[in-house]
Amino acid sequence: MPDSGHIVSSYEMELTELASSISQMGGMVECAIAQSIDALLSHDKKKAKKIAKDDRLVGDMQRKIDENAVSMIARRQPMASDLRLIISSIHVANDLERIGDMAKNISRRIKHIKGGEDLSPSFYNGVRHMTDLTLLQIKTALDAFAARDTKAAIAVCERDDEVDALYVSIFRELLTYMMEDPRNISQCTNLLFCAKNLERAGDHATNIAEAAYYLETGMNLQVMLDEKRDEEK
Amino acid sequence: MSKKAKQENTKIAPQVKIKGRNVDVFYGDKQALFDINLDIERNQVTSLIGPSGCGKSTFLRCLNRMNDTIDICKITGSITLDGQDIYDKEIDVVELRARVGMVFQKPNPFPKSIYENVAYGPRIHGMTSSKEELDKIVLKSLKRAGLFEEVKDRLDESGTSLSGGQQQRLCIARAIATRPEVLLMDEPCSALDPIATAIIEELIDELREKFTIVIVTHSMQQAARVSQKTAFFHLGKLIEEGATDDIFTNPRNQKTQDYITGRIG
């Protein structure tokens, strides 16, 4: 992180504002994911509707970040770490908007899912666990971005396999229910989509972690991890 | 391409045209440059950047011994052009300056015709034996400097009658007429408007095919646009040098980072 501020203080303020907009937008989508799963598990259609409606605010925020970033590129001709902050903010805002879409997609499916205790508690526990992990991934990635913490960014990328593994286990469980009784197919397919949305949100969290790594080092995290793996072989 | 492969590639491709080693420059008691080690690669544009008074123009002037004209200036260390020490006693300075041409900040055409401005160098260096040959050189230099189309009908008009951007291109034509190997440019666009600047920048990119170019510029955007290699000077020291892409996106040194992002002036 640069030690001193810009000679042009308004530029410094714009950069600070950009970074805080990312944090604010991050908070909004973290909340949206948590609430969408709450709504799913408690079958709260009213809450689901509100989440879908609030997604517009996330979209507005992304547009605002994009506009500010483009304006700064045009007016300030940013270089080095400033350039990296602006470019990665555009990427992160895009990933956050996609995570917001995932929350919206989950909320929209709730009306097609029957409530009650149709499915085993193990399914709900699995989804709850996957949600906690996905939220942890998003939060850690955003913290890594704000603090330019490369170690935390690497940890997010390495933990993505766990989210994927949970998704596979939920997939298999739902598949079993569908094979047991074809009447479960519609219900399970909707639930499977919800799990898939969570898994995709986890992928976007790794993208944010990659942006955090790039912001600090100017290098691509995946390339670095691949090279490390090759060396270990 | 992996970073390692990229590094390998850059290692093999360029050849060093000018090599500066342990260069110290003093103006009287005051030391202006401290232990500069810098390679200028053939057919590449190298830009020297840094705040005012950091020594970048001083270093540029060392490369064709322009500092010889300043009595109190003393240079130690070595600067070689194709392996030959340019500060060797055997070196003919006039010949050296024909090999290493220079374009200055302010366009400075001679108060002579456009034709004479370009013909002057080849004539005094005895590069031609006939008028036809000289005509050819003038024509080729003006064309290469991207000025010919604009002045072809008024070659006998005074060089000073041209616009600022045209005058600077005339100075470039004059500098390349003696067929130099290296072209030194000291803030060549600082007195020009954005359109004239764009034309000169386009020209620099074309000229790089034939010449090795070293440019001093205060505009970091210009350095980023025209050069392949960038060297950052601060308080007489070479702080960082490397591929332009790396310097402007991911500099290694904190001082470079602070300067190019506008945190130190």
Describe this structure in words.
Helices cover 85% and strands 0% of the residues of chain A. Chain A is built from seven helices and no strands. In chain A, helix 1 (9-42) packs antiparallel against helix 2. The radius of gyration of chain A is 20 Å and the shape is flat. The model of chain A has no long low-confidence stretch (mean pLDDT 92). Chain B is of the alpha/beta class and 265 residues long. Chain B has a domain at 15-107 and 181-260: Rossmann fold. Chain B has eleven helices and ten strands. Chain B has helices at residues 3-12, 56-62, 93-99, 114-124, 131-144, 148-151, 164-177, 194-207, 220-226, 244-249, 254-260; strands at residues 16-27, 30-41, 45-49, 73-81, 84-85, 100-103, 182-186, 212-216, 229-234, 237-243. In chain B, strands 6-7-8-3-9-10 form a six-stranded mixed β-sheet, sandwiched between helices. In chain B, strand 9 and strand 10 (237-243) form a beta hairpin. In chain B, helix 4 crosses helix 5.
Tell me briefly what this model is.
Chain A contains seven helices and no strands.
The CATH class name of the domain at 15-107 and 181-260 in chain B reads Alpha Beta
State the fourth-level CATH superfamily of chain A: Phosphate transport system protein phou homolog 2, domain 2
| CATH superfamily (homologous) name of the domain at 15-107 and 181-260 in chain B | P-loop containing nucleotide triphosphate hydrolases
Number of helices of chain A: 7
Mean pLDDT over the full residue set of chain A: 92
Main attributes of the structure:
heterodimer, A: 233 residues, mainly alpha, Methane Monooxygenase Hydroxylase, Chain G, domain 1, 7 helices, 85% helix, B: 265 residues, alpha/beta, Rossmann fold, 6-stranded mixed sheet, 4-stranded antiparallel sheet, 11 helices, 38% helix
